[in-house]
Design a protein that fits this description.
The chain has 111 residues and is mainly alpha-helical. It contains seven helices and three strands.
Length: 111
Amino acid sequence: LLSRRQRQMCIETEILVADVIINRVLSKRFPNTVKGVVYQRNQFQPVSNGRINTVKVTPDTIRCVDRALDGEDYSNGAIYFMNRRASGKQASWFDSSLTYLFAHDGHEFFR
């Protein structure tokens, strides 16, 4: 989910995605493991379309995850994010069901 090469994200965006996953693990509304959160049905497009299995984990990605695990958090409590252009009709669910927090690097973050 955090591969910048695949999605051309900046380092801060990778950390934000990791923060969202951590926030979900800590929330009672989601599974309580990283694997459970990442592989929860219909939550993340790269999991649903199988792309997650084709992306190489880079040292930069590992550093971003480590930074998030060490407490670097830009998320303002976000537990959802999307790229509006890639989300299509599903974007309306985000708009009508969640609280918009901020946009960063082509992604919108919600609670």
